[in-house]
């Protein structure tokens, strides 16, 4: 601007944010909150769990921390499986089904497969044409009823 007609107007000063804080204040960590176990929401159970968690975390320091490792010594869990699996019977059932289907495929030749496909295709065509005819008859009945 070459010519300023407003000589008496002074521009506003923009307030700058204070970024001059010392690095020590920025790097201060927040203190960890402590649980007040006398509150009803925590109670004795929470205190026991907290002690157990602390004990486990100290013992597992530097080791892997999978859920299996953490729950290994849990007194609430049982090491006995709920459902007993029969190893001898289960694989036989699967194998028998596969053998039967393989034997069944051996008996059916390529010609028989083609004949079966043709029969199925014909049946599907008949069913769709029957559905179309029945739907068409229903429309005729609806029209005759609406004319009266």
UniProtKB/TrEMBL annotation:
Residues 66-76, 104-121, 139-148 have a biased composition (Basic and acidic residues). Residues 37-148 are annotated as: Disordered. Transmembrane segments: none annotated. It comes from the Eukaryota. Coiled coil: none annotated. Residues 92-103 have a biased composition (Acidic residues). This is CWC27 spliceosome associated cyclophilin.
């Amino acid at each position: 601007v070459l010519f300023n007609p407003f000589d008496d107007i002074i521009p506003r000063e923009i307030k700058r944010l204070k970024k001059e804080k010392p690095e020590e204040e920025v790097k201060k960590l927040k203190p960890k909150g402590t649980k007040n176990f006398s509150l009803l929401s925590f109670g004795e159970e929470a205190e026991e769990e907290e002690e157990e968690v602390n004990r486990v975390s100290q013992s597992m320091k530097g080791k892997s921390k999978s859920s299996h490792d953490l729950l290994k010594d849990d007194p609430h869990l049982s090491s006995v499986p709920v459902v007993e699996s029969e190893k001898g019977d289960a694989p036989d059932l699967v194998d028998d089904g596969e053998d039967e289907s393989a034997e069944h495929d051996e008996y059916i030749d390529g010609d028989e497969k083609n004949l079966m496909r043709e029969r199925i295709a014909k049946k599907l065509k008949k069913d769709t044409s029957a559905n179309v005819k029945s739907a068409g008859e229903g429309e005729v009945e609806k029209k005759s009823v609406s004319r009266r």
